[in-house]
Specification:
1 helix, 58 residues, rod-shaped, 0% strand, mainly alpha
């Protein structure tokens, strides 16, 4: 493998790692939002504010 090919391969590898990091951060943020939504739903159920879901209306 020529020197240029190795450098090119390393650049692609680093780019993949950066993309993976961005995806991971995005996933963690959305996971936090899901947890918050679940807590809110649980609280509303406990307070009697929640309504059963009517799947026919979806």
């Amino acid at each position: 493998m020529g020197r240029g090919k190795i450098v090119e391969h390393l650049r692609e590898y680093i780019q993949d790692l950066q993309d993976e990091q961005k995806w991971s951060e995005s996933f963690n943020k959305s996971q936090d939002k899901l947890i918050a939504a679940a807590r809110l739903a649980k609280q509303q159920i406990a307070e009697g504010k929640a309504q059963p879901m009517d799947y026919d209306k979806l």
